[in-house]
Design goal:
Keywords: Disulfide bond, Metal-binding, Secreted, Signal, Zinc. The chain is of the alpha+beta class. The chain has helices spanning 2-16, 26-31, 126-133; strands at 24-25, 35-43, 53-64, 74-80, 96-103, 110-111, 118-120, 157-158. The N and C termini lie far apart (39 Å).
Length: 160
C-alpha cells in the first residue's frame, strides 16, 4: 500500500513539473527554434480548454525560418496548448513579442509552447534585439562561449 502511495505522489510531482522551464540563453532559444518572428498579438483565445488554441498575431518581421517553408507577413495563427497545465504559452493582447517555435510538418501550423522562445520586445536589451535582428548566432556552436551577451562577454540567460 505504501508503495502505491509513493508511486502516486511521484507521478503527480513529475506531471506537475512537466512544464517547468530552466534558464536558457538567447542563443539556445533562437538556435533551438525552427522559426523566430517579431509580432504584435491581435487576438487571444477564450476560455481554457484541453484542445489547442491559437493567437492571431501580426508578423512584423521574420527573423528565422526553415528554407522550404516561407512564413507569411501579416496576420498568422500561433498555436499553443489550451491549458496552462499542458504547457500553454501565454501572450498578452496588443503586446509586441519575439516568438520562436516549431512548424508542424503535416499541417504547417506555427506552434509555440511554454518553454519555447517568447519574450516581450520591451523586456530585451537593445544589444539582444540587435543580435536577433542581425542573426548573430552560430547555431553550429554548442559551447558556452557562444552564449555570451553582445556587450560584456557575460552569459545572459532568459527565464520565461
Amino acid at each position: 500500500m505504501l508503495l502505491l502511495y509513493v508511486l502516486t505522489v511521484l507521478s503527480m510531482v513529475s506531471w506537475s513539473l512537466g512544464c517547468s522551464c530552466g534558464e536558457t540563453s538567447l542563443h539556445q532559444y533562437v538556435c533551438g527554434s525552427e522559426f523566430v518572428i517579431k509580432c504584435r498579438v491581435q487576438t487571444v483565445p477564450g476560455s481554457e480548454t484541453n484542445a489547442d488554441v491559437y493567437y492571431v498575431v501580426n508578423v512584423l518581421d521574420i527573423l528565422k525560418q526553415p528554407s522550404p517553408h516561407a512564413l507569411p507577413m501579416g496576420e498568422v495563427k500561433i498555436w499553443t496548448p489550451g491549458n496552462d497545465g499542458i504547457c500553454k504559452a501565454p501572450l498578452a493582447l496588443n503586446e509586441e513579442y519575439y516568438i520562436g517555435g516549431s512548424i508542424d510538418k503535416r499541417t504547417g501550423k506555427l506552434q509555440t509552447y511554454l518553454c519555447n522562445f517568447r519574450s516581450k520586445v520591451s523586456t530585451l536589451k537593445d544589444c539582444q534585439k540587435r543580435m536577433i535582428a542581425e542573426n548573430m548566432f552560430d547555431c553550429s556552436c554548442k559551447t558556452p562561449e557562444c552564449f555570451q551577451d553582445c556587450r560584456r562577454g557575460r552569459h545572459v540567460f532568459i527565464r520565461l
